[in-house]
From TrEMBL:
SMART domains: Robl_LC7. InterPro entries: Roadblock/LAMTOR2_dom. SUPFAM superfamilies: Roadblock/LC7 domain. Gene3D superfamilies: Dynein light chain 2a, cytoplasmic. Residues 8-96 form the Roadblock/LAMTOR2 domain. This is Regulator of Ras-like GTPase activity (Roadblock/LC7/MglB family). It holds the Pfam family Robl_LC7.
Length: 124
Protein backbone atom coordinates (compact mmCIF):
# COMPACT_ATOMS: atom_id res chain seq x y z
CA UNK A 1 0.00 0.00 0.00
CA UNK A 2 1.30 3.47 -0.80
CA UNK A 3 2.27 6.04 1.80
CA UNK A 4 -0.64 8.39 1.02
CA UNK A 5 -3.25 5.66 1.56
CA UNK A 6 -1.72 4.46 4.84
CA UNK A 7 -1.55 8.01 6.18
CA UNK A 8 -5.20 8.58 5.19
CA UNK A 9 -6.14 5.43 7.10
CA UNK A 10 -4.40 6.75 10.23
CA UNK A 11 -6.25 10.05 9.82
CA UNK A 12 -9.57 8.20 9.52
CA UNK A 13 -8.80 6.27 12.71
CA UNK A 14 -8.10 9.58 14.47
CA UNK A 15 -11.51 10.87 13.42
CA UNK A 16 -13.16 7.65 14.68
CA UNK A 17 -11.42 7.83 18.08
CA UNK A 18 -11.95 11.56 18.55
CA UNK A 19 -15.49 12.73 17.72
CA UNK A 20 -14.56 16.44 17.92
CA UNK A 21 -12.02 16.11 15.08
CA UNK A 22 -13.36 17.75 11.92
CA UNK A 23 -10.50 16.84 9.62
CA UNK A 24 -6.76 16.69 9.18
CA UNK A 25 -4.00 17.14 6.65
CA UNK A 26 -0.53 15.62 6.44
CA UNK A 27 2.24 17.31 4.51
CA UNK A 28 5.98 17.31 4.10
CA UNK A 29 8.07 19.78 6.07
CA UNK A 30 8.42 21.60 2.73
CA UNK A 31 4.65 22.17 2.62
CA UNK A 32 3.67 19.62 -0.03
CA UNK A 33 0.34 17.93 0.71
CA UNK A 34 0.69 14.21 1.36
CA UNK A 35 -2.84 13.28 2.47
CA UNK A 36 -5.94 15.34 3.14
CA UNK A 37 -9.08 14.67 5.17
CA UNK A 38 -10.33 18.27 5.14
CA UNK A 39 -13.62 19.46 3.68
CA UNK A 40 -13.38 21.62 0.56
CA UNK A 41 -10.33 22.72 -1.34
CA UNK A 42 -8.24 24.00 1.58
CA UNK A 43 -5.71 21.13 1.75
CA UNK A 44 -2.91 22.70 -0.29
CA UNK A 45 -3.06 26.00 1.59
CA UNK A 46 -3.30 24.25 4.96
CA UNK A 47 -0.27 22.13 4.05
CA UNK A 48 1.86 25.13 3.16
CA UNK A 49 0.89 27.01 6.33
CA UNK A 50 1.38 23.90 8.47
CA UNK A 51 4.96 23.50 7.31
CA UNK A 52 5.68 27.17 7.96
CA UNK A 53 4.18 27.01 11.47
CA UNK A 54 6.10 23.84 12.29
CA UNK A 55 9.36 25.51 11.27
CA UNK A 56 8.57 28.60 13.34
CA UNK A 57 7.56 26.53 16.36
CA UNK A 58 10.74 24.47 16.21
CA UNK A 59 12.84 27.60 15.87
CA UNK A 60 11.14 29.24 18.86
CA UNK A 61 11.91 26.20 20.99
CA UNK A 62 15.56 26.26 19.94
CA UNK A 63 15.88 29.97 20.70
CA UNK A 64 14.22 29.65 24.11
CA UNK A 65 15.80 26.31 25.05
CA UNK A 66 12.43 24.64 25.69
CA UNK A 67 13.35 21.26 24.17
CA UNK A 68 11.93 19.35 21.23
CA UNK A 69 8.57 20.17 19.66
CA UNK A 70 5.63 18.08 20.79
CA UNK A 71 2.79 20.16 19.37
CA UNK A 72 1.55 23.61 18.56
CA UNK A 73 -2.06 24.27 19.53
CA UNK A 74 -4.06 27.24 18.26
CA UNK A 75 -7.33 28.08 19.97
CA UNK A 76 -9.85 30.07 17.95
CA UNK A 77 -13.40 31.24 18.51
CA UNK A 78 -14.71 28.44 16.26
CA UNK A 79 -12.42 25.60 17.36
CA UNK A 80 -8.85 24.38 17.57
CA UNK A 81 -6.00 23.59 15.20
CA UNK A 82 -3.19 21.36 16.42
CA UNK A 83 0.11 20.77 14.63
CA UNK A 84 2.37 17.76 15.27
CA UNK A 85 5.75 16.74 13.92
CA UNK A 86 5.19 13.23 12.59
CA UNK A 87 8.81 12.19 12.42
CA UNK A 88 11.48 14.34 10.79
CA UNK A 89 9.73 14.88 7.44
CA UNK A 90 5.94 15.05 7.98
CA UNK A 91 3.61 17.55 9.64
CA UNK A 92 0.17 16.44 10.85
CA UNK A 93 -2.44 19.18 11.26
CA UNK A 94 -5.71 18.37 13.03
CA UNK A 95 -8.85 20.54 13.19
CA UNK A 96 -11.33 20.19 16.05
CA UNK A 97 -14.60 21.93 16.72
CA UNK A 98 -15.49 24.37 19.48
CA UNK A 99 -15.89 22.76 22.87
CA UNK A 100 -13.55 19.94 21.88
CA UNK A 101 -11.96 17.88 24.61
CA UNK A 102 -8.47 19.35 24.25
CA UNK A 103 -6.88 16.65 26.41
CA UNK A 104 -8.26 13.93 24.15
CA UNK A 105 -7.28 15.92 21.06
CA UNK A 106 -3.70 16.21 22.32
CA UNK A 107 -3.50 12.53 23.30
CA UNK A 108 -4.96 11.20 20.05
CA UNK A 109 -3.13 13.75 17.90
CA UNK A 110 0.21 12.64 19.32
CA UNK A 111 -0.73 8.99 18.88
CA UNK A 112 -1.67 9.57 15.24
CA UNK A 113 1.49 11.59 14.58
CA UNK A 114 3.57 8.70 15.94
CA UNK A 115 1.66 6.24 13.74
CA UNK A 116 2.19 8.45 10.66
CA UNK A 117 5.90 8.72 11.50
CA UNK A 118 6.10 4.90 11.74
CA UNK A 119 4.36 4.49 8.39
CA UNK A 120 6.73 7.02 6.81
CA UNK A 121 9.83 5.32 8.19
CA UNK A 122 8.69 1.94 6.82
CA UNK A 123 8.16 3.45 3.37
CA UNK A 124 11.58 5.13 3.15
Amino acid sequence: MELRQEVLEEMALLRERTPDVQGSVACTVDGLQLACDLPGESGEQAAALSAALLAMSRRMLVITGQGALEETLISGTAGFTAFYAAGPTIVLTVLAGPGANVGLLRLEGRKTAAAVAAVSSRKH
